[in-house]
Amino acid sequence: MPKIIEHLREALLAETRRQVSTHGYAATTVRSVAAACGVGVGTVYNYFPSKEMLVAGYMLEDWQECLNGMRTDIAGCDDAGAVLARIYRGLTEFSDGHRGLFADREASVAFASASSDKHRMLRQQIAELVAPLCGEVSGGSFPAEFIAEALVTWSTEGRSFRDVYAVVQKLL
Question: pLDDT tens digits, residue range 104-161?
């Protein structure tokens, strides 16, 4: 009879996160994650079709937590500078938390094919947060998407919010 492991998906993601942060992307394998969780490699593949999907799984969880945190931080705030600073802080914290993975050459190659679609989705999610500052209900307009792109791009590059806001506020 197969053994039942409670919360195995969560355990696999947590172990993948731990291994990537400790040993790097290249040293993390489906086999090493399976061994650390006390399951067979095939069991991991029942949950995730590849190492890339294991990594993407924990990053998605982190992103959803970050996005929810930004939504909470800006709720009820009507000062454009404060809203954008809070969004920028959330993006910077997410980026800093995954800097090792973002800088890893092997990981970049592995995720290159999906990155433009995911970047577009991320920009649209941030544009939704920015939209009210542009007098919009949703983030489908060019100004909201432009501001979102600026926030995403420059937060990952380590630019100061002050520099970015000096330009962005001219669009509001």
Answer: 888 878 777 667 778 889 999 999 999 999 887 776 788 999 999 999 999 988 899 9
Q: Which domain covers residue 148, as residue numbers?
A: 58-171
Euclidean distance between CA atoms 164 and 130, whole angstroms: 14
- What whole-number distance in Å separates Cα of residue 172 and Cα of residue 92? 22
Kindly state the helix (H) or strand (E) to which residue 51 belongs, with its residue range: helix 51-74
Can you tell me which residue has the tokens 């294991």?
54
Q: With H, G, I as helix, E, B as strand and everything else as coil, classify residue 39.
A: coil
Spatial separation of the C-alpha atoms in residues 10 and 13, rounded to whole Å: 5
Residue 135 and residue 102 share a domain: yes
Do residues 90 and 130 lie in contact, with contact meaning Cβ atoms separated by under 8 Å? no
Cα separation, 67 vs 122, in Å, equals 10
What is the Cα 91 distance to its own chain's centre?
Answer: 8
Q: Is residue 147 part of a domain?
A: yes
One domain for residues 25 and 82: no
The residues near 137 (Cβ < 8 Å, ≥ 6 apart) are 131
The model carries a pTM of: 0.85
Predicted confidence at residue 113, as pLDDT, reads 67
- CA gap 162, 172 in Å, rounded: 15
